[in-house]
Amino acid sequence: MAPSLEENEHVGEWHIAAPLDASKLQVTLVNNPKPLPMGEAIAFGKTVTDHMLRVTWTAESGWDTPRITPYGPIVLDPVASGLHYGFECFEGMKAYRDAAGRLRLFRPELNAARLNRSAARISLPTFDEAEFVKLVRMFVKIEGRWVGK
């Protein structure tokens, strides 16, 4: 997919904004994975895996290099609009194991499309849905031990 052209509002000129590109993924794994919680100890919003997927976006350059890194704090500028106006976009995508024990995602393309529509509605940057699904698949493969049987 070719990079999108976007007008730079600040100077009234056009520039090329980089698209989301899963082929540029950089992975840094933890040295000592934490033990898995037992049974009911896994709670949505409270239990976190060993890693997180991060991709930075700016109006000037578009999407940066995707990275899977050890889970940890993120740096947030105090003037980030999310702190002032609370823009947030969430899409829950289910990962599970089939009867043969293989990792599966439930309708990832539809989830990606819905997330993209939601992002556009609240003026957050959109992304190439196929590239997003590739990144999610790679993340789930790395964190597969967290997906129940």
UniProtKB/TrEMBL annotation:
Gene3D superfamilies from the UniProt entry: 3.30.470.10
SUPFAM superfamilies found in the cross-reference section: D-aminoacid aminotransferase-like PLP-dependent enzymes
GO MF, one example: branched-chain-amino-acid transaminase activity
Protein keywords: Pyridoxal phosphate
Alphabetical GO biological process terms: L-leucine biosynthetic process; L-valine biosynthetic process
InterPro entries: Aminotransferase-like, B_amino_transII, BCAT-like_N
Cofactor requirement: pyridoxal 5'-phosphate
GO cellular component: mitochondrion
Family the entry assigns: Belongs to the class-IV pyridoxal-phosphate-dependent aminotransferase family.
Protein name (record): Aminotransferase class IV
Source organism of the structure: Macrophomina phaseolina (strain MS6) (Charcoal rot fungus)
